[in-house]
Amino acid sequence: MELELVTKKQDPSLKLLVILSKAYKTVMEQVELDVKSRGISLTDFAVLELLYHRGQQPLQKIADKILLTSGSITYVVNKLEKQGYLTREQCELDKRVTYAVISDKGTELLDSIFPGHWDKIKQIMHGLDYHEKEEAIVLLKKLGTAIREL
């Protein structure tokens, strides 16, 4: 029993989890505040930003990439389509697949808000210098890969 306590004290895994969780929460709070200040919800922004930077996407891939359920993505896509920010296109090769495509109106919206949002992201991440950011990217990718292999 005592040996187990010593091991827990020597292994910083729990501390890393807590600090990583707190850092993520703090970053996302700031990102969400910034996006909301630009007149759009974080979820709507995430969908449009994905389409803006990666082009058309199958609806299921959008759900996977921004961590939403398929029911939630349908709701968000319906709303964005009604607002004219995206359209749906059926896949020519597989009619079961539907793509979301950012519209001209959606592109104009992202053209107007993304530069300021990018500046805010740089401001949020200012606590690390360039090399520390690069190192954090490598380490977090390594951690994610190891977790997926469990």
TrEMBL record:
Which PROSITE patterns does its entry note?
HTH_MARR_1, HTH_MARR_2
Give the record's GO biological process terms: response to stress
**What keywords does the record list, in alphabetical order?**
DNA-binding, Transcription, Transcription regulation
- Kindly list the GO molecular function terms attached to this UniProt entry: DNA binding; DNA-binding transcription factor activity
* Domain annotation HTH marR-type: ranges: 10-145
What is the protein name stated in its UniProt record? Transcriptional regulator (MarR family)
Pfam families the record matches: MarR (PF01047)
Q: Can the keyword Transcription regulation be found in this entry's annotation? A: yes
